[in-house]
Structures are given as structure tokens and as C-alpha cells.
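Lab manual, section 2.4: Encoding a predicted structure.

Procedure: take the sequence of the chain (173 residues), apply the prediction step described in section 2.3, and record the output as C-alpha cells. A sample record is shown.
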Amino acid sequence: PAANRTLTLPGDADGEILTSNSSVGKILQVKHAFSDVFSTTSTSYVDTGLSVTITPSSSSSKFIINVNGIGSASSNDSSQGVFRIVRDSTTVAGQKTLTVSSGAYGEAFAVVEGTRERYPVTTSLEDSPNTTSSITYKLRVLSPYGDTIYLGRWGTNNDWSVNSYMTVYEVAA
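Recorded output:
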């Protein structure tokens, strides 16, 4: 309303009252990228080509990183692919850890196994890079056993493919 409001708080109250003029929680910018089919046999993490570069508006900004895609493997049922998101070369904190048959692979959020299945490679993470310099978020993958791992294709079907997407939201903090 146009009139002023009066709030009465206990004497030991502590906090902040946000008004409609506050920018906290507002989306400041959105960047989006997609990629075609990617494959690798690398036993070390490699970039999948899915990446978004963004320049933070403020060093206090938070970023929400969403990835959506399909993963598969072209070899036997023990084939596995382990995916993770990095900011420049630093792994984004808070990713799930998956245990695969060869041991624990940290920073992974998806595993694909076998030739007859396709698995979602999807996640949503929050990151606080504390910078105003340009940063790049990338999706990386490794194949622990050196089998062919695909992003965006069903391993046994060359005709079945789908784009993978990454969307990065900058949120005022």
C-alpha cells in the first residue's frame, strides 16, 4: 500500500526485512548451450563440448547449473561413464558421489552402463565462485575401463541421438 507500515519486533530480534526493492534472489542473467553427440574412450576426464561462459555481475552472486542429456556405452554391461561439472578447471562442489564396480569415483553425478540402455545425465548444482571475472562451466566425462562412452546417443543405435543442454542462472545473493 501507499501508507507506511509499522512492525514491532521483540527487543532481542535480529535479521533483515527485505522489501520489493531488494534484488536478493532475482535472476540476473541466463546462459544456455547445447551440444551434439560426443564420445570418448578416455580414462581421464575430458570435456564433452557442453559448456557455458558467463561473467558474474557481482562477486556475491550464486549460480545454478542445470545439465540435461542422455548417456550410453557401446561395449559390454560393465562399461561405465562418470560425469562431472567443472568451473574452469575446478570441480563444482556438492556433486553426488557414485560407487561403481571398480571403486569410488568422486564428483560424479551420473553413471551409464551397458549397451541396451540409455541413462539420464541430469543434475542441478549451486555454485558460489566469488569473482567478477569470466568463468566457464563445463561437463566432463571419463570411461574408467576405456570403453566408448556417449553423450547424446544410444550406444547401439547410430540413428538415435538427442542434443544435451546446459543452462546457467546467475542469482543475486
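Check your result against the sample. The mean pLDDT is 80.
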